Amino acid sequence: MTGSGGPQHWAPGEHILWRYRGNGTGDVHICRPVTVVQDTPELLAVWMAPGTECVRPVLADGTPVHEEPLATRYTAPRTTERAHWFGSGVLKLARPGDPWSVWLFWERGWRFRSWYVNLEEPRTRWSGGVDSEDHFLDISVYPDRSWLWRDEDEFAQAQRAGLMTPAQAERVREAGRRAVERIQAWGAPFADGWEHWRPDPEWPVPELPADWDRTPAHTAP
After folding, report:
1. What DSSP designation does 176 have?
2. Count of other CB atoms within 10 angstroms of residue 212
3. How many CA atoms lie within 13 A of 150 on its CB side?
């Protein structure tokens, strides 16, 4: 992986890691190598190409997490596995300090499908990428400007399982309400035309490094 150190900015085309740490554990359980599209004081935009090898959580016996009944989904023992991202690629947009990132999805032939607001801890930058913690609750946004909440059942179960305190859950809900205000006002990034963006066809697919779960030597907001 390449990348600038600390709070400096990465250049377009550089490869970094977009990671999530487990709720309450601090261990990296999701790692996605991505290509930097834009990195400014206002916005980090990255591209996750189709076929990218990633790390994802699975149950200890290898069962996909989403196949576990909701009641035990967050208490059953877990591990991680390497797997390739299939289907279309994903463009991820994140403004510093925002408690969410916005992902863009396309169908085959670059037919734009939707935006996805992933509620999460504001990302921490380090020399090899960014780290965050997923907050379970999400929002889908469609080209006709309609929107809907996603994963409310998982958000509720995470609280029952003790992965979020009531105070933290309320902060996440408040972040979601602020995101909805942004959607209803059709503010950035929804009005910025990112659905028309296309990756450089010369970009190679980033590789997943052996030390994908390494502890950063330096972090910065």
Report:
1. H
2. 21
3. 12
Rg of the Cα atoms in the chain:
17
Strands 129-132 and 15-21: parallel
Q: Which residues in the chain belong to E strands, given as ranges?
A: 15-21, 28-39, 44-48, 53-59, 78-84, 90-94, 100-107, 111-120, 124-126, 129-132, 134-141, 147-150, 219-220
DSSP for 118-160, written as a single string: EEEPPPEEETTEEEE-EEEEEEEE-TTS-EEEE-HHHHHHHHH
**Residue 220 pairs with which residues in a beta bridge?**
125
Q: What is the dihedral of CA 4, 1, 208, 41, to 10 degrees?
A: 20
Q: Which two tokens stand for residue 109?
A: 């032939």
- Interatomic CA distance for residues 84 and 151, integer angstroms: 23
Which sign, positive or negative, has the C-alpha torsion 23, 90, 58, 214? negative
Single-letter amino acid code for the residue at 162: G
Q: What 3-state class would DSSP assign to 169?
A: helix
**pTM score:** 0.93
Per-residue confidence in pLDDT tens, the chain, 221 aa: 444 344 589 999 999 999 999 987 889 999 999 999 999 999 999 999 999 999 999 999 999 999 999 999 999 999 999 999 988 999 999 999 999 999 999 999 999 999 999 999 999 999 999 999 999 999 999 999 999 999 999 999 999 999 999 999 999 999 999 999 999 999 999 999 999 999 999 999 999 999 999 998 655 55
